[in-house]
Design goal:
It is a single chain. By secondary structure, the chain is an alpha/beta fold. It has two domains: 102 residues, Enolase-like, N-terminal domain (Enolase-like, domain 1, 2-Layer Sandwich), CATH 3.30.390; 268 residues, Enolase-like C-terminal domain (TIM Barrel). It is built from 13 helices and 20 strands. Strand 9, helix 8 and strand 10 form a beta-alpha-beta unit. It is globular and about 60 Å long. The protein starts with a strand and ends with a strand. It holds the Pfam family MR_MLE_C.
Length: 412
């Protein structure tokens, strides 16, 4: 009963992914996602040079003990690199435990609390006709909740708009599918918060007029507003009944969310760039958010994020786990198993991976009627085709960044 082999596999089918593959002495394998978009090789080095040597010979059954060992023995704790590496180990050990038990991981977490996971997709457009076409396409794909991102007049390229790759140096790949452009330097985009705040409420009014009051609509502010600007936007969007407003202001300044709360009843989702329960502790305790946006991949794995969500449940705060395509199919499967089992599930972000990614990562999940289910294969339900992975070597890529009209670097 020990880990006999640990491999760090980097592949770039539609984008760069980092996968940890553990093999036990009796040949059982487990996979973990360690992808940190735009900084992938930092986690590769941390795993290969510091973590893997500690895993050989370790007892694969001691998931909690291994987590605590990797977290506490490093002394220099937290941060995205460390926590993504620990997350990969944690996922891989849960995958192994499920395979040994002959059960899907969600059964080991207490069994299913629901029949499937409500998921939202990403509709976008540079203008209203394009946005409406995107919403219709998502409805046809079965989505029952939709995130709305739109272009802003006068800005040539901003976060989350699928059709703007021509402006940002992109080729065939959808911008929202992979905003990290491959190349030696990040692409510069532009931003104007005043123009955005003026334009966005009219967009949601048009979407509601076109598609009615019943579709849950979401929006991502992507950290670009000051607290008072976020408060204004939340209040302006109240007539359109958003499911949530995400990352309305940089949440490292946790006290800022108190100001936003004072001015709006629009639900708030925060935390996709957070790494531990300590990042969430105060804003959960003070009930300054409604949804926890943490990712299994970036929060130290299933074990750590489950504890965070159990804490959030005490305050009637729900999950809204990060799930775009910078989470590999392994990390996405882990999120599905966790979401299926917890009581305070809210919604799951779900962007569909490309055909090459699905060739590398063979998955057992289902998508039906707007609901995700991880499937009932033992473990996480994902297997890695090593030969296929080898056909897509790592390519350097960076996420974009913003500058204001006067040249000031701004949050993207």
């Amino acid at each position: 009963m020990s880990i006999d082999k640990a491999e760090v596999i980097v592949t770039s089918p539609d984008r760069n992914f980092v996968t940890l593959k553990l093999t036990t002495a009796d040949g059982i394998t487990g996979l973990g996602d360690a992808t940190l978009n735009g900084r992938e090789l930092s986690v590769v080095a941390y795993l290969a040079e510091h973590v893997v040597p500690l895993l050989i010979g370790a007892d694969e059954d001691r998931i909690e003990d291994t987590w605590q060992f990797l977290y506490r023995s490093a002394y220099w704790r937290r941060g995205p690199v460390t926590m993504a590496a620990i997350a990969a180990v944690d996922m891989a050990l849960w995958d192994i435990k499920g395979k040994k038990a002959g059960m899907p991981v969600y059964q080991l977490l207490g069994g299913a609390s629901r029949s499937g996971l409500l998921a939202y997709g990403h509709a976008s457009g540079v203008d209203l006709p394009q946005l409406f076409d995107s919403v219709r396409s998502h409805l046809e794909q079965g989505y029952r909740a939709i995130r709305i991102q739109t272009g802003v007049p006068g800005l040539k390229a901003i976060y989350g708009i699928a059709s703007q790759s021509a402006f940002t140096g992109g080729g065939e790949a959808r911008y929202d599918h992979e905003p990290a452009r491959r190349g030696a330097r990040p692409v510069e985009e532009d931003w104007d918060t005043r123009a955005y705040l003026t334009h966005l409420p009219g967009v949601f009014e048009a979407v509601r007029n076109e598609f009615g009051p019943d579709i849950p609509l979401l929006h991502d502010g992507h950290h670009r507003m000051t607290p008072i600007q976020a408060a204004r936007l939340g209040k302006d969007l109240e007539p359109y009944d958003l499911f949530w407003l995400e990352d309305c202001t940089p949440a490292e300044n946790q006290e800022a969310l108190r100001l936003v709360r004072q001015h709006t009843t629009t639900p708030l989702a925060i935390g996709e760039i957070f790494n531990t329960v300590w990042d969430f502790k105060d804003i959960i305790r003070d009930q300054l958010i409604d949804y926890v946006r943490g990712a299994v991949t970036h929060m130290g794995g299933i074990s750590a994020l489950k504890k965070t969500l159990d804490y959030a449940a005490m305050y009637q705060i729900k999950s809204g786990m990060h799930g775009p395509t910078d989470i590999s199919p392994v990390g996405m499967a882990a999120a599905m198993h966790l979401g299926l089992s917890i009581h305070n599930f809210g919604i799951q972000e779900y962007m569909q991976h490309g055909a090459r990614t699905n060739e590398v990562f063979q998955q057992s999940f289902t998508w039906q009627g707007g609901l995700l289910h991880p499937g009932d294969k033992p473990g996480l339900g994902v297997e890695l085709d090593v030969d296929a992975a080898g056909r897509y070597p790592y390519e350097q890529a960076y996420l974009p960044y913003n500058r204001l009209a006067d040249g000031t670097v701004h949050d993207w």
